[in-house]
Write a structure and sequence with these properties.
Radius of gyration: 27 Å
Number of strands: 7
Shape: rod-shaped
Length: 162
Amino acid sequence: MTILEIEQAIINRLKEKIQGIEIDSFPEKPDEYNLLHPKGALLVRYVGSNYAEPFATDVIAQDRKVNFEVNVVMRHLTSHEGIYAYLDAVRIALTGFKPPHCSKMYPVREEFITEKAGIWHYAITFSMNTRTIEIAEEKQPILLKKITTIDELNEEILEVQK
C-alpha cells in the first residue's frame, strides 16, 4: 500500500466518523493555507516511517512503522465546537482503525502547534505497522546450449546442440 493510499483511507475514515468541518490532505503550501470553513479543518499529513532491520539476506523484507499526523485547525479552543472536542473525536475515530495492509492505528503524540488571530492549531500523530518487501527483478533464464544423454552403460546415446 502506498503512502497516498493510506492517507486517503485515513481521510475517508475521518469523513465517515466526523461531519461538519473540512477534512482533506495537508496543503502543499501550508504558509498560504487559509481556513475558510466556519468551524475548522482536519488536515492529514504523512510525517515519516521507521524501518526495522531486514528479516533475511536473500529477499529484503522489513517491518515499517508508518506515522501520520492529523492537523486540527479550529476557530475555537474549549467550546463544544472547539479544538479540544475535535482532538477527542479524531482520537476516537482513528484509534483501532486498520487501513488496508496495515496494523491498527494508535495515537503516539498530541501537541499544540500555534495560535494566530484566534485560529488554533494542534496536531495528533498516529502510528501503524506494515511490511516492506522488495519487488523481485526478473532473472534472465539460462539458455540451454547442449544436451547429452548417457545410458546405463555410460554410453552417449543422444546429443543435441543449438
